[in-house]
């Protein structure tokens, strides 16, 4: 069993840290919000008075923070976070952040660091079924794998530092473009008098198929488990998709990749979030796109 420091006990970090406790690890947690720390203590965790205190003597230090600036702040501005860890410790940042910050922070650390963003949402965090996309040194990945396995089901090593964030940005950009395509197709079918179920039966077995259509259909009916059947309650909130599309654009601009449909998808989600849709499932743009 390992001694683990865990910083950031919010919607995702809270249940992830609880799964580490359930697996028998000794977890010292820290969050700026007292209520998050209290919930962690109620679940059997030990509260640390600061990030550095949580890191003290840790074999693994895990962070699950909102954005790149918080990760930069935690590792680069707060002095001594990595130095407080045990010799040979592995740093694991599970936050979804930009590739450049992930690479910069990893390069500045005196210990091996993994970027390990997740997909699977709060349900996946609760159930320990997250997917981890991991960038960083092979040896550190091998060491951290059993720890990640207590919080997730699929754990993929994507290569060097930043490649986990790269995988997540590419996947979510592709997903958003697919979802918008699915919504526009169903909206056009409605105007042409073609029933949802008929279009679904064709497309889900034809070349227009995608995960967005087949498994997460944005209209009620064809896929009973999709959020469209429960008034677009998330699922995966549109505000998080907007964030991830912004990270994908930042990455594309940083390396000179052309991603015009990713940029257009970002504009669609920005419009949806500005109109109050941030807390709605990302497939809820069906309702906006239907109106033009
Ligand atoms: P959240 O806001 O619920 O939790 C973040 C926590 O970090 C908060 O409790 C906050 O108080 C704490 N925090 C911030 N700065 C801190 C610091 N310096 N020291 C200690 N604690 C600090 O966010 P979340 O939903 O748990 O998301 C965390 C990350 O996971 C984000 O990067 C998000 O994009 C990503 N993510 C979220 C989901 C989801 O469905 N919520 C899914 C996949 C990935």
In short:
Helix content is 52%, strand content 13%. It has 292 residues and is of the alpha/beta class. The chain folds into 2 domains: 3-160, Rossmann fold (3-Layer(aba) Sandwich), CATH 3.40.50; 166-289, N-(1-d-carboxylethyl)-l-norvaline Dehydrogenase, domain 2 (Orthogonal Bundle).
Write the layout of secondary structure elements.
Layout: E1 3-7, H1 13-22, E2 26-30, H2 34-42, E3 46-47, H3 51-55, E4 60-63, H4 68-77, H5 81-84, E5 90-93, H6 99-108, E6 113-115, E7 118-119, H7 121-127, E8 130-135, H8 138-149, E9 152-159, H9 163-192, H10 196-203, H11 211-214, H12 238-255, H13 260-277, H14 285-290
Parallel strand pairs: 1-2, 1-4, 2-3, 4-5, 5-6, 8-9
Antiparallel strand pairs: 7-8
Nicotinamide-adenine-dinucleotide is lined by residues 7-13, 30-33, 36, 51, 64-66, 70, 73-74, 95-96, 118-119, 121-122, 240, 243.
Count up the helices. 14
Low-confidence stretches: none
Number of strands: 9
Rg over CA atoms = 20 Å
Mean pLDDT: 97
- Envelope shape: elongated
Q: List the ligand species.
A: nicotinamide-adenine-dinucleotide
Q: What top-tier CATH class of the largest domain fits best?
A: Alpha Beta
What does this structure look like?
- The chain contains 14 helices and 9 strands.
- By secondary structure, it is an alpha/beta fold.
- The chain folds into 2 domains: 158 residues, NAD(P)-binding Rossmann-like Domain (Rossmann fold, 3-Layer(aba) Sandwich); 124 residues, Orthogonal Bundle (N-(1-d-carboxylethyl)-l-norvaline Dehydrogenase, domain 2).
- The protein is elongated.
- The mean pLDDT is 97.
- The site of nicotinamide-adenine-dinucleotide (NAD) has 27 residues, from helix 4, strand 7, helix 7 and helix 12.
């Amino acid at each position: 069993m390992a001694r683990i420091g865990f910083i950031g006990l919010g919607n995702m970090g809270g249940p992830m840290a609880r799964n580490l406790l359930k697996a028998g690890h000794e977890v010292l947690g820290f969050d700026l919000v007292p209520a998050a720390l209290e919930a962690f203590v109620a679940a059997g965790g030990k509260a640390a008075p600061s990030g550095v205190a949580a890191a003290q003597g840790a074999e693994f230090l895990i962070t699950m923070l909102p954005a790149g600036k918080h990760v930069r702040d935690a590792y680069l501005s707060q002095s001594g976070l990595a130095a407080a860890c045990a010799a040979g410790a592995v740093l694991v940042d599970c936050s979804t952040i930009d590739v450049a910050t992930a690479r910069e922070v990893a390069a500045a650390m005196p210990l091996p660091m993994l970027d390990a963003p997740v997909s699977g949402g709060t349900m996946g965090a609760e159930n320990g079924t997250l997917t981890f996309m991991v960038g960083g040194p092979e040896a550190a990945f091998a060491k951290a794998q059993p720890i990640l396995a207590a919080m997730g089901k699929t754990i993929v090593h994507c290569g060097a530092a930043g490649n986990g964030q790269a995988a997540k940005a590419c996947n979510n950009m592709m997903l958003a473009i697919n979802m918008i395509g699915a919504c526009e197709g169903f909206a056009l079918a409605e105007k042409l008098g073609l029933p949802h179920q008929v279009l679904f039966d064709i497309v889900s077995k034809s070349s227009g198929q995608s995960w967005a259509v087949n498994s997460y259909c944005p209209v009620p009916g064809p896929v009973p488990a999709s959020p469209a059947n429960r008034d677009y309650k998330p699922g995966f909130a549109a505000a998080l998709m907007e964030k991830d599309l912004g990270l994908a654009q930042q990455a594309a601009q940083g390396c000179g990749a052309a991603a015009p449909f990713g940029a257009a998808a970002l504009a669609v989600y920005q419009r949806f979030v500005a109109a109050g849709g941030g807390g709605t499932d990302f497939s809820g743009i069906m309702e906006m796109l239907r109106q033009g």
